[in-house]
Amino acid sequence: MQLPQQLKKWDNQQVRYVIVGGWNTMVGCGVFALLYCLFSSYLHYQVIAVLSHCISVFHSWLMYRHFVFHSKAPMIMEYLRFNFSSLFVLGMQMAGLWMLVGHAGLNPLLSQPFIVMLTVLTGYLMHRYFSFKIPQDHESDR
Fold it and tell me: Model-level pTM?
């Protein structure tokens, strides 16, 4: 089926990644903000960031799997690769929070979205070439 000319620009993996990534970012920041508001009086913001990550990563994997990479790979191994990539990005986010909150004195709620935006390119590259990697002979299927 041919896409109408106006929709063809949306039928691009990078465009879909940005759109789904924006949604995932809103969900992730919302989860972080909710957990921070509920638990910041007795949990450190770094612990809240890890909890938020654990909750948000499953949602993100499903969204990227179905809407961006159209993956048909076995779910368990792909989910493990996705988690490894996401843990790497989480490490970048934790270091960024440590720098912005711990050393620059910014509020965690203002720092988190900024850090997440900075990790978008790294996340795309890791997911494209590692998490959702497909064999070369199937590359044209995308």
Answer: 0.67
